[in-house]
Amino acid sequence: MLEEIKAIICEFVEADADKITESTDIRNDLGMNSFDVINFAVSLETAYGIDLSDRQLAACFTVGDVIKVIEEKAAEK
Amino acid sequence: MSEKKYYEITPAQDMINVMLKYSFFHKQVIQIPASVVFTKQVNFDIMKNALNLEIERNDCMRLRFKKKGGKYYETFLDEFKVENVPVMTFKTKEEQEAFLNADAGRPIHHMKGEIFRVYFFNTFDGRQGVYINVTHLAMDAAAVFIFFADLFACYDHLAQGKELPKPLAKYEDAVQKENAYLNTPARVEADIAFYEKYFRDDGEPLFNGVHGPELLKRARIKKKNPNLRVLPNFDPIHDKAELIKRPISKEDGEIILKYLNESKVSPECLVQLGMRLHLAKLNAEINNGIIDTYFITLCTRRKTLSDKRCGGSFTNTLPWRIVLPRELTFEEAVNKIQELQHSIFRHQDYPFVKWRNIENTMYNYSLADGATSMMFSWFPLEKDTMNGWEYEFNGYSMGRYVMPLYTYAMKDSRNDSLKFAYLYRTNQISADNINALHDNTVKALKMGCSDPDMTIGEIWDKL
After folding, report:
1. Which pLDDT value is given to residue A58?
2. Are the Cβ atoms of B346 and A41 closer than 8 angstroms?
3. Topology classification of domain B7-176
4. Which of B304, B338, B341 sits opposite A11 (nearest CB)?
5. Which of B33, B56, B173, B398 could bridge B133 with an S-S bond, Cβ 3.0-4.6 Å?
C-alpha cells in the first residue's frame, strides 16, 4: 500500500517518491496545504472506496497514519 | 460536425454559459480582462513569438465552440497563430486605463472563433505590459495566471535560451475527465447528500446585502411578508458596473500577512471573516445582531499538480453560508470558516446549476430569487508566480456585470501587502457602500490579526 499512497501523493505535491516513508509528515515534510490535504483525501476515498471524516483526516500526520486509517476503514467494510 | 473531435462543454463551462444566457444585452459580462505590467524591458517582437509558442503549449487558447441541437460543444484546433499583436504606448495613467477598460468592455465573440485579444503596451511610467481579454469559457482566473507565467517562460526561452518549463497539461484531457464526473454515481450521490444537508441544517439563509437592509425591507413590504428572507436578485437590464481598486498600505498589510504566515490559515477564509463581520453589522436591523452571512465564492478546483499546470475553465461557485456566534474569538471564527472550507471543498465538483436547484427546490425560490448578491474570490498570486518576473497584476471592468458585486483580493507583489478590487453594479450599490465594506473589512482584519483572542463580538462593536 505504501507504493500506492506514494503515487497518489505525487499527484498532489512535488516529491521524490523514493524518499517518502511511513514516517514522512504529509504537511510539514511534503508541504501539503489544507486544500491539498482535502483533495488528497478525496482521491484516497475514490481509490479505496472509503469515507474519511474531517476528524480522521485531521488526525493523520504521517503517511503511516494515512495507511493505518485506510486499513481500518477497509476492515470495517 | 467535421471529423475534428468535439466534446460537450463541461459543467464548469456550462455555468458560464448559463450566466451568458441570462445576460440578454451585454455578453462581455463573462470575460476576464487582465494585465501584467513588469519592470523588465522586453522586445515585443520576441514577445509575439513567445505568445505563439504559448498558444502551441496552452491548448485552451486554441478552443473553438459550436452549438448544435441546443447543446454546446468545443473542439481544439491543432494550430493557431497570431500574426499581429498591437503595441500601444501610453503617455498617462488615464490614457492607459481608458484604453484597456474600453477593450475590457468589448465582447469577445467566442461563437465566431474569437477566444481572446492581446495587446502589448509601454506604460506611462516606463514599464511594459501584456494585456489579455479572454472568454471565461476558455480560461478562468487561475488559467490567466498560468498563461502569463508560461508566456514569460516562453519569452525567457526565446530571448535568453533558458530551458522551457515542463509542458502544460492538456485541457482537452481535463475536459474529458470533467465530463466523466456526472457519470460517477457514488460521487454525485455523496455530493447531493452533502448539499441537501448543508442547505437544510441552518434553515433558510438571510439576505445580508452590501447596501444594507433596505432592499430586503422593501421586498418584505412589496410581498406583504415580514418574514421574507431572500429577494429577487435577477436584473439583466441594469447591469452597468464599475470597478474600484483598493490596495492597502504596507503597514496594514504587514499586520494581516504576519498573522497569515504564523497561523497558516487560508487567506480566503481570513479575508472572508472581515467581510462577513461588516455585512452582519450593516444588516443588524434585519438579522437581529446575529452573524449569519451568505455569499458565493469561486473555487479554482486546481487539485493536482497537473491541474495546476493546465489552462481552461475549471472554476465552480460554492455557496458559503456560515453562522458565527459572537463569543467566538477571531481565531476560532477563522478556524470555523476553514472547517466549512474543508467540508465544502470535498464537494467542489458538484455543478453550480445543480446545487442551486437543490437550494431553490428546498426553499421554493423562483429562478430570480437570491440569498446573496455577492461573490468573492482569493487570487493565489505570490511574488514568484510570474516565472520570477517582478510584476503588477491588474483586472479591468467590463463596464457590465452579471451580478451586483464581485470582489477579489490578492497579495500585492509590489509592496508586500494586499490589494482588493470590487466590481459592482451601480444601480444597486454605491461607491460609498463599497468603501464601507472595504474599510470595515480591513479594520476588522487588523483588529483580529493583531489580537486573535479578541471575540468577533468585540470586533463587531468597534466597526
Report:
1. 80
2. yes
3. Chloramphenicol Acetyltransferase (3.30.559)
4. B304
5. B33
